[in-house]
Amino acid sequence: MKTLRMEDMNWVDIEKAIKDGFKTVIIGVGSTEQHGPHLPTKTDAIIADVMVDLIVQKLKHALQAQTIRVGCSDHHLPFPGTISLKKSTLKAIIHDYIESLQQHGFENIIFIPTHGGNFNPIKESVEKAQENYPNIKIIAFTDLMKFVDAQDKIAVSLNITVEEAGGHAGEVETSEVLFLAENLVKRERFQPGYLGVLGEEEIEMLFKKGMPSLTEIGVLGDPTKASKEHGKIYIEQIVEFLIDEIKKVL
Length: 250
Description:
This protein is of the alpha/beta class. The chain has a single domain (6-249), classed as 3-Layer(aba) Sandwich (Rossmann fold), CATH 3.40.50. Helices cover 46% and strands 8% of the residues. It contains 9 helices and 4 strands. The protein has helices at 11-19, 43-58, 87-102, 119-132, 144-157, 162-165, 171-181, 200-209, 228-249; strands at residues 24-29, 62-64, 108-113, 137-140. A 4-stranded parallel sheet has the order 2-1-3-4. Helix 2 (43-58) crosses helix 7 (171-181), helix 2 crosses helix 9 and helix 3 packs parallel to helix 4 (119-132). The longest helix is centred in the last third of the chain and has 22 residues, at 228-249. The protein is globular and about 50 Å long. The two termini are 23 Å apart.
């Protein structure tokens, strides 16, 4: 097929693909939220969309459904441009995606979140949906710490510290957007954000009081260390990591 992206296909070709064995559908779940003064608000959505596109190309008989581009981002609301869904809203969207897609004959429905605030709501929604549809597999990669650990290992292999890599708009995400959409990056605004410890206490404060409680510019990490070359490596290696995780449960 020319494309595996269902939003670029018509219903006739989608139906034929399913009948021909394309029984797996994968959905990226991003966000629309601030990513510092230098990255676009669609950063997580771009990354989710591209990663899922690459995953379906590498997996056999998989299609990509339209990326969910808004997520749970309350802690970023102090920054203009952030749009946040209630957890109940995101859960409802996940439920409706599943209810729609299972009707068409998909046997494996997989969600790939790229924004930390989405992991728990997706996990809860998928677990409930699996009870309702026991004859198909409904999967979501929602092990946030495992995802972060995999990402940090790649960073360290590139001589980037965990603090520089960062959890938000730092070296990792800035490198990825430089690789995927360099025209949207404001290099002249690069500056280090929060580079301290990001333990349970700090994370709890971040979610309770918002991102400005840790960083006035909305950055965790150091974008000044970013490069397009690193971005390519992050995208490719995280995609391989996610494919390995998917294969374990399919």
